[in-house]
Design brief:
The chain is mainly alpha-helical and 479 residues long. It has a single domain (2-477), classed as Amino acid/polyamine transporter I (Up-down Bundle). Helix content is 75%, strand content 1%. The chain has helices at residues 2-26, 34-37, 49-61, 64-71, 78-104, 110-118, 120-150, 156-172, 179-204, 219-224, 235-241, 244-251, 260-269, 278-305, 308-312, 315-324, 333-336, 339-386, 393-416, 420-449, 455-473, and strands at residues 226-227, 230-231. Strands 1-2 form a two-stranded antiparallel ribbon. Strand 1 (226-227) and strand 2 form a beta hairpin. Helix 4 (64-71) runs parallel beside helix 14 (278-305) and helix 9 packs across helix 14 (278-305). The two termini are 38 Å apart.
Length: 479
């Protein structure tokens, strides 16, 4: 696990060194924050720093650093490089500077910031774009928890209704009433789960693929995962369809860089007591998310490439999988064990009963909490555009009712369409990274106008532009 441990240490150093560099470039000072200048008791509420950090972490994390890292197993140890370099030099910078820009602009949302520095046309475009993304997040993150919960008790439709009702309540109530109380608990559970897995990894110290095995060196690992001459992994077939560039950079988003985060940072910018708390809250929460992603990248590497799946499955389940290998409709390991299944199997096996509970929180509570804050952001973005004061509940409802109607239509379509979730997820993945492109260009213009070092966002902006464009263009030339 040399690559994994070096990567983990690099994230810590990234926060201590590069995080300080970015902080000095921006230059936080002692001016009043929006929460202190004009609290409204609904969205602008000063909260303890530890609570703001935990909420920010859960807002941006959800299941992203878990599911993305597990699905990133297709790309082998290259995921370590992307998580580390992306998190330090792109994702954390993106989250910190978008949050700090919001602080300096009275808690402004992303479309308003983009409009100020890229023009009113871009403001309108990004208003529509970010709204579509946030509504998709709300719809996408209902599906997986509802499916899991229906396997325990009740029907899938029942859980759709329950989660949807929670969305409405959490979106409309003041941020300190539900989000401020339960988010820190779920965030702690997510961190504790990752910490427990990290300790088990150090105890087991499994032999897993290293960065220097990339290329032909991965053939040995793939050959080891065969049954009666049949490839169990299916990695080569997958990579023939989805090349490492740009697919990996879309698949692994939340652990490296995600445009969705820029819609969440203004929520916490409205709750900070001081600008100088921005680095631990914004940059620090992204580094923490990168650590969670690294842990799951290592766990999934052990699970798929080192035969870990055989250790966590009972013998009859192992035989059941092997029996379908080689059939016309047979599935590979990565197809057979989806991300939620890997989470449940590994946590239950490694962490026992407590692990099973944490796994449930990770794959059920985390996406739900991402969904409700996405819709809260959508409400605030619309309110900002229409200049609607959000203190009166009536004006909150005027925005929320049509917004929830749109999400409900997406959910109905998703239920009616057998492939609805996969289609929605593909659009979500691409639009998520495209949003990060617009955010990075906006920050670059801001830094340029302020005569600050704009190269720290210009380079990531150029790279992510290439990723997003390539993801759209490449399929046009594939047969």
């Amino acid at each position: 696990m040399i690559s994994f441990l070096i990567s983990f240490a690099a994230l810590v150093l990234g926060y201590l060194i590069y995080g300080r560099v970015i902080e000095r470039i921006f230059g936080p000072d002692n001016r009043q924050t929006p929460a202190i200048a004009h609290p409204d008791g609904v969205d602008y509420i000063a909260m303890p720093t530890w609570k703001v950090f935990m909420i920010q972490f859960l807002n941006i994390a959800g299941t992203g650093p878990i599911f993305g890292a597990i699905m990133g197993a297709w790309f082998g140890p290259a995921s370590y490089l992307w998580i580390v370099l992306g998190c330090i030099f792109a994702g954390s910078v993106h989250d910190y500077l978008s949050g700090m820009m919001s602080l300096r602009h009275d808690g402004a949302g992303l479309p308003e910031l983009i409009g100020k520095y890229m023009g009113n046309v871009m403001r309108i475009i990004m208003l529509v774009f970010s709204m579509l993304l946030l509504l998709m997040v709300g719809a996408v993150f209902v599906y997986s928890p509802a499916s899991i919960l229906s396997g325990i008790v009740g029907s899938e439709k029942l859980w759709f209704v329950v989660i949807f009702i929670y969305y409405i309540i959490a979106t409309l109530l003041p941020i300190d009433k539900i989000i401020g109380k339960i988010y820190p608990i779920f965030a702690a559970a997510l961190i504790f789960m990752a910490l427990g897995l990290f300790i088990v990894l150090l105890t087991k110290m499994p032999t897993i693929p290293e960065v220097w095995h990339l290329g032909n060196g991965m053939d040995t690992w793939m050959t080891a995962q065969t049954h009666n001459g049949t490839d169990l992994l299916g990695v080569k077939e997958y990579l023939n369809r989805y090349t490492l560039f740009p697919a990996m950079f879309i698949t692994i988003a939340c652990g490296a860089i995600s445009g969705f985060h820029a819609t969440q940072s203004p929520l916490m910018a409205r709750c900070l007591k001081s600008e100088k708390l921005g680095r631990p809250v914004f940059y620090g929460s992204m580094i923490t998310e990168g650590m969670v992603a690294l842990v799951w990248a290592a766990v999934s590497s052990w699970f798929f490439y080192s035969g870990g799946w055989k250790e966590v499955l009972p013998p009859d389940a192992v035989n059941e999988f092997l029996a379908q290998v080689g059939n016309n409709d047979g599935k590979t390991l990565i197809q057979y064990f989806n991300a939620p299944a890997v989470v449940k199997l590994v946590c239950s096996s490694w962490l026992g009963v407590a692990g099973g509970i944490l796994a449930m929180l990770g794959v059920v509570a985390a996406p739900i909490t991402s969904g409700d804050t996405a819709l809260r952001s959508a409400r605030l973005i619309i309110a900002e555009f229409l200049k609607f004061d959000q203190k009166p509940i009536v004006k909150r409802l005027m925005i929320a009712v049509p917004m929830f109607a749109a999400v409900l239509l997406l959910l109905i379509w998703q239920l009616a369409n057998p492939n609805g979730f996969n289609v929605l997820w593909q659009y979500f993945g691409w639009s998520n990274q495209t949003l990060s492109v617009f955010t990075l260009w906006t920050i670059t213009i801001y830094l340029y106008k302020k005569k600050k070092c704009y190269w720290v966002t210009l380079i990531p902006a150029i790279f992510m532009t290439a990723v997003s464009l390539s993801f759209i263009i490449f399929p046009l030339f594939m047969f």
